Amino acid sequence: MDTQDFSPQTLRSTALQALGARGYIHQCTNLDGLDAAFAAGVVPVYIGFDATADSLHVGHLLPIMTLRRLQRAGHKPIVLIGGGTTRVGDPSFRATERPLLSDEQIAANIQGIRRVFERFLTFGSGPIDAVMVNNADWLDRLGYIDLLRDIGRHFSVNRMLSFDSVKARLERQDPMSFLEFNYMILQAFDFLELHRRAGCLAQMGGSDQWGNIVNGIDLVRRLEGREVFGLTTPLLTTASGAKMGKTAGGAVWLNADRLPPYDYWQFWRNTEDADVGRFLRLFTDLPLERIAELEALPGAEINQAKEVLANAATALAHGPEAAQAANETARRAFTGTNAEGLPAVALTGEEAPDGALVVDLLVRGGLAASKGEARRLIAGGGVRVDGVAVADLDARIVARALPVRLSAGRKRHLLVRGA
Q: Is 187 annotated as a binding residue?
């Protein structure tokens, strides 16, 4: 692995200077070589995304933003959708095998995640326009004996077992199927195919993909006699050590049908103080000079920077109008003047005569994952109705009082309406 400094003053190309300045680079196979390639002309770069769900989530956002940065620096993003590799499942740093999906599920998931990239990248037929390809186009036609003979013979089992992603699982004595063990061969074959088909010179991905990327580089060298490159982004955790993009309510999805833009905005608005500057650099297009000003705001003024972060990140994922609407909804919720625009639930016809339990409404509205969690929120004094704390675990909201704003904590709110 290259040991050079990733700071922008040590780099020649605009692309790597931008990535280095904003904190996108974790590892690179040959930093000088990749830097020279970026400086010499347009470089096609790919990142792969398996179709394990019908939306991507914030955990995928760092590689997506990496492609965005490279396109803005004059290079060509290749979005590889793993229609073929999803049928196997990436075992990297997992304790258990991924559930196998049907072909119909994979196809539906691909349709769902296509929409994400159109917000972040410019697609078309120009020299730096992004393209989207599906590795099922070549993997589904691959004969097993051909794969063993032409590709498999270039892989050392000893070396495959030495990669951290595999070694850690075996050391824990977690089972790994032969199907999963083949994943790294298929991903390496993807790099070879994209190099042959599109002149792809670099693969990028999260730090957990280092072993898979190195395998692809080695395969291209063996079969094509060409040097290609690999670069990984850091594994992101919050300042408190939590995994980036995970909340008590689950994954922070990028598709609006999985997570409303208001909730997405709130996720960024709730960023820890110590993470604001880093997240502004990684997840927005704001100039570095402006980010330096925002992260230097003292005391409670840092909340202004969090609002800027939430607006900019939501505008990228959902559009400026959605970001503005979420911001205005949040302002109304905090001031208590108007709850219009908040996520809402309605009393059912059966509930209308006697009202609905606050516990049930918390769960139904997504403010609590279970009734047990809802009761703990109430017992801890964290639930309010129109700003008044709820103390009774059996408290109800009655129809004659509607509409009301139901809050869990200071930043999560729900409008309760009539049937």
A: yes
